[in-house]
Write a structure and sequence with these properties.
Length: 324
């Protein structure tokens, strides 16, 4: 019996770190633009490759916490795809459901880190997503974002969850948020724990409302038992099965790069639920895990184990979620 089957994308992320004082780059904060001199050869401080993709990140985070996670994703058969498979095994993530498509390449993202912010160039390879979970036993399914052709596999996962009476956690990806419709809302109705950021929550509800407690209540009305909203530097808020709402700030951290912070929060939160913690404690687990990830480049390098999370929380007893 596995604790989680995580379904979604697995990618390779390449990060280019550029020094803050680089004369070839500048930030136009007024228009939210990163400006790079055309035709220049720009020096890079550091180049790093790491695993990426929502489901891949969450499966790695759950494994670091000591849980049994399986990744259900589709990759190619090139060298980068092989690196994905090898790195997952190093993280003790089971790859029984990892599909390898002959003649296909890995999906990827290239990130530019400059002055504490990252800009991503994303390349998604079109996949069939012909997943088969029939022979896998699990307590939970975690469903992340998928690229083109996501509706059929989403319906297949939903059928699997319903037939086996499993618990479902859900983080929609950009493709799902761009095309909100029957399939997404069918998944939401079966979801037990929903993870979104504030902008995504507002988009799902199609409202202008900006007050977190009202957003939480409206999202829960769609059906998720527990809703978690992350809001960057403002921390996170959540509503539990009994309608009690909580707010929590960010855990102290020196920000290096923010990729994967939300995924780290999700894996910490879900791990705490498996460990028998309540929602307010799960928020603390998530926040500590996210704070560690943003102190490193990439989405998985800073992921913590259970003992380290509990130690950091013990060292900061004042870091508590408050009822709203």
């Amino acid at each position: 019996m596995n604790d989680f089957v995580c379904v979604g994308d697995a990618t390779i992320d390449a990060f280019l770190s550029i020094h803050d004082a680089n004369l070839h780059c500048r930030l136009n904060e007024k228009d939210c633009e990163l400006c790079i001199k055309y035709g220049e050869k720009i020096p890079v401080d550091k180049f790093e490759l790491s695993l990426g993709g929502i489901a891949s990140n969450v499966s790695g985070g759950l494994s670091r916490m000591g849980l049994r996670s399986v990744l259900c994703a589709e990759i190619g058969d090139d060298e980068l795809s092989q690196k994905i498979a090898n790195d997952l095994k190093k993280e003790n993530v089971k790859t029984d459901l990892l599909l390898k498509t002959r003649g296909a390449t890995a999906s990827f993202a290239v990130g530019i880190n400059f002055k504490g912010e990252r800009t991503l160039f994303v390349g998604h390879v079109k996949r069939k997503h012909d997943f088969n979970l029939a022979d896998i036993s699990t307590q939970w399914v975690y469903l992340g974002g998928l690229g083109d052709g996501w509706k059929a596999p989403y319906r297949k996962i939903l059928d699997y969850v319903q037939k086996n009476n499993l618990r479902l956690a859900f983080t929609p990806g950009s493709s799902q948020l761009e095309e909100l419709g029957e399939t997404v809302f069918a998944v939401l109705k079966k979801t037990e724990v929903l993870f979104v950021n504030k902008e995504e929550a507002i988009k799902i509800l199609n409202i202008k409302e900006n007050y977190p407690s009202k957003i939480l209540v409206q999202l829960q009305r769609i059906s998720p038992k527990i809703v978690v909203i992350t809001d960057g530097k403002n921390g996170s808020c959540a509503i539990d099965e009994n309608g009690v709402m909580y707010r929590l700030g960010t855990f102290p951290a020196k920000v290096v790069e923010r990729t994967g912070a939300g995924d780290a929060y999700a894996s910490g939160f879900l791990s705490a639920l498996i460990f028998g913690r309540n929602v307010s404690e799960a928020m603390r687990f998530g926040a500590v895990n996210a704070s560690s990830v943003i102190e490193h480049v990439g989405a998985q390098r800073g992921l913590l184990g259970r003992e380290e999370v509990e130690k950091r929380l013990t060292d900061y007893p004042e870091f508590q979620a408050k009822e709203v």
